[in-house]
Amino acid sequence: xxxxxxxxxxxxxxxxxxxxxxxxxxxxxxxxxxxxxxxxxxxxxxxxxxxxxxxxxxxxxxxxxxxxxxxxxxxxxxxxxxxxxxxxxxxxxxxxxxxxxxxxxxxxxxxxxxxxxxxxxxxxxxxxxxxxxxxxxxxxxxxxxxxxxxxxxxxxxxxxxxxxxxxxxxxxxxxxxxxxxxxxxxxxxxxxxxxxxxxxxxxxxxxxxxxxxxxxxxxxxxxxxxxxxxxxxxxxxxxxxxxxxxxxxxxxxxxxxxxxxxxxxxxxxxxxxxxxxxxxxxxxxxxxxxxxxxxxxxxxxxxxxxxxxxxxx
Length: 313
Ligand code: 8YV
Prior knowledge:
Layout: E1 4-8, H1 14-23, E2 25-29, H2 34-43, E3 49-53, H3 60-65, E4 71-75, H4 84-89, E5 93-95, H5 102-117, H6 120-128, E6 147-151, H7 155-166, E7 170-174, E8 185-186, H8 190-196, E9 199-202, H9 216-222, E10 227-230, H10 239-247, E11 253-256, H11 267-271, E12 275-277, H12 286-304
Parallel strand pairs: 1-2, 1-3, 3-4, 4-5, 6-7, 6-9, 7-8, 9-10, 10-11, 11-12
The structure holds 2-keto-D-gluconic acid.
C-alpha cells in the first residue's frame, strides 16, 4: 500500500513533485485562502504527511486542520514559518534541509557584495549602452582588506566567514550569544557590529526574535560608506528605514535577496541605483536544489520506515 502525501501547491519543483508522486499517493494542498479552507474542512482528515517549503511552512492553524498529521517534510532550512512548539506538542516531526545549501547561500552573499562594491550591474549596462569609452565609469570600492560584519554566525554565516578569508577581510559577528570556540570577535550588539563593519551581511535565522534586528540605528551606524547584504529573511531588516537610508545615501548600498513582503518588492527600492536585487535565489543552484530535494525525500522515507529523520528540526 502506498502512503498518502499532501503536497503544498506551488511550493516544490515539478521534478521533485514527480519523484514524490512515484512514491506516494499525492494530493495538492491549495495555497492559503478560501479554497484551502474549504479543502481542509472537507478533506483534512487522514493525512499523516505533508511536503512543503520554508516559505509556506506549517503554522498551528494548518496543523490543527490536519488532525492526523505526523510528519512535515520541508524544502529549505528556514523554520520561521513553522510553529515548532505547537507541532512538537502534537508529536509531529519536522524534516528540513540544513547544511546542503550553505555554500550556495554564502556564494550569493559574496556575489551581492562584489556586485555592489565593484558596480557589476552598472558596468554591464554601461558596456551594453555603448558608453565605453566615451564616458567615464564611476570608481568602485575595494573589497580586499575590508571589514566584514556577519549578523548570524550559524551554519551559513560560518561559510560566509570562510569565504571572507579568501578576500583578506577581517571578520566580526553578532549573535545573541558568543559562539563557543569561534576565532572571530563577537560584537554584543548589531549596532556595534555595524559601526565597525564596511560590509554587513545578514544571515540570521528569521522569526519574531530577529524581527527588525537591523533597525534605523543599526543602518545609521553602518554609515555612508557601509554596505548591507541580506540573504536571510526580509523581516530581519526594517525595510522602510533601509529605503530611507538608501534614498538619502546614508548608507552606500544594499544587496538584497529577500524582502519584507516578498515576492512584492517596494517600488521605492526598485527605483534606486545603489541596490542590487535578487528574487530569493540564495539556494537556487542545480546542485543545491537537487541535494535539498533528495533530503525532502530521505526525510519522508525515514519517517515511513520508522527511522529517525536524517534532518529533523
Ligand atoms: C528556499 C530558503 O528559497 O531554505 C530556506 O529557508 O529560504 C530557501 O532555501 C526555499 O525554501 C524554497 O522555496
